[in-house]
Task: structure prediction
Amino acid sequence: MKNKPDSYLHRNSSPRGGALFWPTLKRVYAFSFFLNKRSKRSRLFALLCFFPILLSIFLRVHQTISADTSFDGLYLFTNAILLFVFQFLVLILALFYGSAVCSEDLEAGTWPYLVTRPLPRPAIVIGKYLASLTLMALMSAVGVITSFIILNLERWAELSLYIVLLKDLGVLVLGLMAYASFFAFLGAVVRRSVFFGLIFSFGWENVIQYFPGSTQRFAIIHYLKSLLPLPSTSRFSFLTFRLEPTKPFLAVIALLIITAAFLALACLVFIFKEPRAED
Amino acid sequence: MSPRLQTQHLSRWYGNILGLSDVSLEVGPGITGLLGPNGAGKTTLLKLITGQIKPSLGRVTIDGQPVRGRAEHFFRIGYCPETDAFFEGLTGWQFLNWMLRLLHFSDSEAAAAAEKMLHLVELYDDRHRPIRSYSRGMRQRLKLAQALAHNPEILILDEPLNGLDPLGKRKIIRLIREYGREGRLIIVSSHVLPEIEALTRQIILIHQGKIFAQGDIHEIRDLIERHPHVVSVRTPDSRRLAAELIQQPYVVKAYFGDDDQNLLVETRNRDLFFQFLLEAAAVKGLRVEEITSPDDNLQAVFDYLVGRP
Result:
């Protein structure tokens, strides 16, 4: 071995307690984003996020071949692309990235590298959550924006269309925020979080929205659908048959509260989280 | 100020399984070896010390301050985990760099420290290779590097010599001893006795979640009254010495070793024995060529303490 390093790294004025929160958040965010974007999981989900683009291309080609004059790009975007995005893509992305926030390091054995460093645990959770959220939002937004453009090529100069797109992107981010924080909490409290997450996503969230009355307000998807354009009464109407939307402002507030509450709970659980004996 | 680590009545259960029971220790600067067989509770103790798990009872303090829940303590602590786990997609360079940035080093500080540390553990030439392509020994050195890189006052090393070849072991042992000489508090766990012996004489013996003994190996040895010390004396006058020794009340047994000149003596009081030997050499002209203590090693002490024959 060569000579040891000098003591120039020793710090007597190390920051304490609360002062560590923001620097930790920034560093964990950067580290987690760096890891996430290179992961196999991200490569797989990036492909999934390209599905709306493929679907849009298919619809376009079909329209060209069949010379369909009734083709309505915005209608197809709202009723096919957004349906896929909110009923499937957002849930899957949020489930896998969100549940990993509090559990992946324990499962992979890399937990000690984080918890034996001067990093407040809530800042670890929030940093990782934000990194996952950024990546999910970027990946899904690319698919949504591209498919929107493909389906509305003829109307590219209409400013009002872009306002619709921006609104949809906002709802997309809100959906990812709410679901990912819920799944982060789930990942912190249960071991097989993906299994329970799948039951929640494709069981609870799918079934409860068709219930009449206020029961559907117990599903996150209810608030997302309340923010999306009301579907037309034609082909896809059966999917939102009984939607009794919440007012948009209240829906946004509800989604923000859900996000904050589950994220806070995830942080709280993570503070006391420990590896199991067998880990 | 030199760091001091204290545990008070530390206990930890995993459900119904006892991980650690009523461990009270005080460890100061220098190297302390934590020795015990697999499953003895070494890793549990080190996880409690580093605040990774919460004690069921008792507490851990560093300089009087509780460890758990105080992230700022980790500026002072370097921890090398036992598990062979890494962020696998990274190269050695990226891993070390990020580990330093998570210690709130600036990018340039992290790069400089990572470079020096990679030189130190002789991984510099392989720094851009993915960790997954590293050998077990290289991974072990990288784990150690991340624990040492921020120059901590306290080093907690869980089985740091696992998987290293003899040459690698020797280098790491030399490095740890060098750090120990600088007044750092170092706790090294191992289930391999010669490893601990090569590092320190200050040991903690742990078995079934309990501390069997703590202190200098000689002191611990002295505690075991019913297990006499074995001293080997090499002398051409071995038979004469045996005849003299067997009359002493503190000598339990005297017998011959490999050859006629090697006398093995079991004594209950090592001090009186050595005093007698000195007098015999000085007064009676006894020629003593070599004195060794074949059982003055951790294996013997450990065997006695856990009741092995």
